[in-house]
Structure formats: structure tokens, C-alpha cells
Amino acid sequence: MFEYKGKIVSDAGFYIKGKTISGFSVPKNNEPAEEIKLDLNTLKISKGFISCNNIIIMRFHPDWTYADYKTAWVKARYTNDDQIAIMLNKDNSDEDLEMYNKMQDWRNWCSEISHKILEKAGQ
């Protein structure tokens, strides 16, 4: 987990679970939370939703392509402006480089889950 824009954010491929909060990105508060690794082998599509580890993570869109899913996943964490700023600033400090690497890890994971969703959907 790491902080980004005043929130606690999960590492790529993980989900944050607390007593009253859960998600890929949650408000920063004093509640203890843990990161749960999402096993893509548990990914299921049922009743219009996509779940992993029995956690609903996204609505299923049967007409979406790989690019649609990957774009939605990436934009769930980083706006286009965020991505550009992170890329432009990556050489400014070790912290900026770490943020760039975390963004790249997220983008790679978005690619993996998008492929898995389409595989499960039979596309």
C-alpha cells in the first residue's frame, strides 16, 4: 500500500480491506487495513459483475474490448493528466521514479486482468 493524492492505494494486483473500508483506493484514515492479493485464477463473471477472490471488482460489459477494459482500469486510478505528470517528473527524484514504477506496475496488471476478463467471457 502507498499514499497517493491523499488516499491509501493498493499495490498492483492487490485489494485493500478494512473493517469499514475496501477498494483499490480508499480514503486515508486511522482504520487498520490490509492488502489482499487478488488471484486472477478466481476471476468470475456472474450476474453482470466481475469478481475475484469472491470480491466484486467491476461491472461486466459484454461489448467491451481489451482496450476498453484496460483503459477503464487505468483511469480508475490515474487520470490522463496524472499519467503525463508522473512520466514527465520521473527523473526528478527517487520518490517520483517510485511513483512512475508503481504506475507502470498498475498498467501491467490492468493488461493482465483485461486479458483474463475476456478469456472468462469467451472472447
Description:
It is a single chain. The chain is of the alpha+beta class. It has one domain. 40% of the residues lie in helices and 27% in strands. It has helices at 66-77, 80-89, 94-120; strands at residues 2-4, 7-9, 14-18, 22-23, 25-27, 33-37, 44-46, 49-52, 55-59. Strands 1-2-5 form a three-stranded antiparallel sheet, with no helix packed on it. The chain has a three-stranded antiparallel sheet with strand order 4-3-6, with no helix packed on it. Strands 7-8-9 form a three-stranded antiparallel sheet, with no helix packed on it. A hairpin with a 3-residue loop joins strand 3 and strand 4. Helix 2 (80-89) crosses helix 3. The radius of gyration is 15 Å and the shape is globular. 15% of the residues are buried.
| Beta-strand content | 25-35%
| N-to-C CA distance | 33 Å
Shape: globular
Number of strands: 9
The number of helical segments is 3
Could you report the average pLDDT, rounded to the nearest whole number?
91
Provide the low-confidence segments as ranges: none
Query: Major sheet: order of its strands?
Result: 1-2-5
Query: Structural class per helix/strand content?
Result: alpha+beta
Largest sheet: 3 strands, antiparallel
SSE succession? EEEEEEEEEHHH
Whole-number tally of structural domains: 1
Radius of gyration: 15 Å
Helix share, percent = 25-40%
